[in-house]
Design the sequence.
């Protein structure tokens, strides 16, 4: 496929992609090739300090490339200075006047972004900016006044606001506005936090550079968005007056310029007039909704013919927005989700194509700042996939495949009859996941798994996710969807369980019966369920809260606790009936001897048959030597733990001079 950009009215681009999608790397590749192919100039504004990618690319151009590090210890930058090319403007008063008003609007926009200025204060702010230039002898109608070695600074604006706040000749409203602005902008006052912007000039000759990278990562976060606005506006104004060389301006975080209707005006102007001035914007953002703000959507769609969506690690919350914004089909969405880093969809005038960005060895070396001999391009794309050995049994049993179970190109699963189901609930927290299932095995919301029978897809997926988490953490586990707990796992000598429960799948009595069995059979357990109030309340009617774990943070926290040994014991005592005769053990004795929390879990109104079953279960454990065996195990474990703690304490004491001196000397100290 060949796209003739020279034949198009504009060469603006929109690039979307989440962190880890290969977005910056792909833009670097496109930019380097564009600079070479079109013999144009490139400017990049990035809030991320990365020695590879953009910064390495600028260094590759040597004296024709420049990295401007902005911040307290960075290069001088004066937002008040009007950056121009005198050779281009010549002596045209109209050109100077136009450049002047464009810069005032940009300076005001950055201040508004930082200070969150009210509508009533905007007029006053603009008037003080005009006053500042006039007071320093800068006249938009007299080009000779622009030839100067020093310029006013941000602190001069603050001084004006501070003076006006105390000028009794002004109205009360004006004094109040000035006082408010002076207070908010105190950081640009002499000696303020942002005093590093109070530079006389910005000593950069833009005219002899092929690539300029503005690294604004060193700028305080509070004012970083404002600096993004100033730099983008200055570059747009500076280069749309130069018809001799086209310029690509890459805005790495375009969201701040897109979301505010008063800040994206120069983007819309520049995009609409790009062909006339030879300035092309490449706008990079993580969220397509940024373009849909402030009713600017149609203007951007009309004037930006090329869009690129990087698919790898795309946030599930953005999938619907991407689908709607670009009018993608379900199959195109599936293609996007299956992309590896450096892959995505290319959209040109509504036509959608799969694309892949793969640098040549020389290009890769450039982006990474390496010698060509040292550069080894990592394998980013796989021909096929490989199932991780530890998950083979899980896949054979469940007929489900999660992304973490395989290595390589998961899209190849489709060729073998697997179907991808996206936006499924995940046990790991917020968001969703994707899962592959065998064609023909899903009937509505039910699956029929050999050996386990019918169950809901949600139930099966939840159990498989718990099993997968345990295997990833090296925990031995088994799955049983029938009478036993759904997932059983072992940590040391202890056995734990997870029962995946769905509201209304069991009666109240059945749930209480499950609870009784789990209390008897496992060290600890949880009833896992969907993280919705409706699901939780229905199950909670029979299962106490302390034995429930909605999928997400609660379930993962419990799994982390029990598998790391940090749990608080909350089960039956090891042997509450030591020395008792079996015939003397009655339900009342059980109720009296066991902790109160047991009755909160089983509930006091048990039927006689349930009481008898509980007592008989305890008697069976005594006959089998269960409690005695547990006592021995726990005693040995406690002794081993005590010895380990004593050894650790001795080692710490030997390293601590205060402890080694003894208590008397410590007291003296």
Sequence:
């Amino acid at each position: 496929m060949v796209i003739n950009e020279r034949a198009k009215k504009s060469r603006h681009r929109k690039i979307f992609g989440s962190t880890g999608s290969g977005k910056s790397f792909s833009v670097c590749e496109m930019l380097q090739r564009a600079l070479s192919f079109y013999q144009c100039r490139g400017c990049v504004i990035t809030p991320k300090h990365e020695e590879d990618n953009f910064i390495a690319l600028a260094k590759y151009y040597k004296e024709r490339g420049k990295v401007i590090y902005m911040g307290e210890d960075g290069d001088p930058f004066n937002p008040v200075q009007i950056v121009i090319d005198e050779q281009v403007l010549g002596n045209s008063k109209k050109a100077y006047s136009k450049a002047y008003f464009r810069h005032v609007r940009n300076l005001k926009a950055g201040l508004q972004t930082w200070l969150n200025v009210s509508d009533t204060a905007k007029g006053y702010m603009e008037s003080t900016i005009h006053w500042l230039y006039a007071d320093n002898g800068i006249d938009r109608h007299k080009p000779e006044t622009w030839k100067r070695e020093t310029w006013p600074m941000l602190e001069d604006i603050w001084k004006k606001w501070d003076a006006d706040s105390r000028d009794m000749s002004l109205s009360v409203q004006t004094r109040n506005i000035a006082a408010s602005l002076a207070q908010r902008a105190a950081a640009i006052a002499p000696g303020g936090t942002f005093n590093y912007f109070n530079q006389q000039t910005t000593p950069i000759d833009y005219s002899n550079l092929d690539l300029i990278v503005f690294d604004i990562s060193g700028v305080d976060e509070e004012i970083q968005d404002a600096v993004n606005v100033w730099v983008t506006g200055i570059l747009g104004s500076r280069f749309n007056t130069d018809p001799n060389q086209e310029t690509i301006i890459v805005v790495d975080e375009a969201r701040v310029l897109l979301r505010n209707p008063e800040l994206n005006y120069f983007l819309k102007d520049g995009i609409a007039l790009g062909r006339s001035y030879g300035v092309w914007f490449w706008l990079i953002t993580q969220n397509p909704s940024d373009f849909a703000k402030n009713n600017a959507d149609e203007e951007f769609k009309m004037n930006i013919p090329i869009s690129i969506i990087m698919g790898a690690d795309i946030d599930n919350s953005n999938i619907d927005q991407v689908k709607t914004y670009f009018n993608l089909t379900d199959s195109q969405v599936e293609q996007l989700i299956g992309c590896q880093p450096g892959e995505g969809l290319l959209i040109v005038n509504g036509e959608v194509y799969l694309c892949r960005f793969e640098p040549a060895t020389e290009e890769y070396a450039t982006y990474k700042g390496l010698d060509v001999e040292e550069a080894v391009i990592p394998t980013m794309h796989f021909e096929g996939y490989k199932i991780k050995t530890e998950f083979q049994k899980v896949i054979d049993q469940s007929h489900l495949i999660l992304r973490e179970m395989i290595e390589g190109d998961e899209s190849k699963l489709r060729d073998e009859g697997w179907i991808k189901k996206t936006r499924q609930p995940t046990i790991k927290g917020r968001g969703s996941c994707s899962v592959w299932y065998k064609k023909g095995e899903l009937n509505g919301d039910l699956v029929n798994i050999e050996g386990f029978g019918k169950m809901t897809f949600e139930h099966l997926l939840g159990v498989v996710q718990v099993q997968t988490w345990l295997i990833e953490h090296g925990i031995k586990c088994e799955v049983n969807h029938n009478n036993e707990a759904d997932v059983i796992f072992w940590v040391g000598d202890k056995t734990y369980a997870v029962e995946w429960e769905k509201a209304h799948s069991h009666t109240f009595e059945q749930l209480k019966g499950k609870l009784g069995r789990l209390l008897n059979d496992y060290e600890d357990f949880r009833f896992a369920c969907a993280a919705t109030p409706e699901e939780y309340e229905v199950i909670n009617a029979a299962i106490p809260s302390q034995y429930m774990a909605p999928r997400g943070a609660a379930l993962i926290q419990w799994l982390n606790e029990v598998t790391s040994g940090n749990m608080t014991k909350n089960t039956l005592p090891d042997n509450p009936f030591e020395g008792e005769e079996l015939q003397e053990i009655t339900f009342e004795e059980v109720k009296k001897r066991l902790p109160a929390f047991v009755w909160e879990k089983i509930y006091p109104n048990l039927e006689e048959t349930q009481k008898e079953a509980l007592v008989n279960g305890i008697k069976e454990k005594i006959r089998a030597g269960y409690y005695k065996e547990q006592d021995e195990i726990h005693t040995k474990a406690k002794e081993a733990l005590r010895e380990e703690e004593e050894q650790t304490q001795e080692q710490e004491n030997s390293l601590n001079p205060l402890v080694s001196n003894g208590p008397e000397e410590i007291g003296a100290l």
User: Anything to note?
Assistant: The chain has four domains: 5-70+208-368, 385-564, 582-624, 634-668. The mean pLDDT is 76. Residues 582-624 form one domain. The first strand starts at residue 13 and ends at 16.
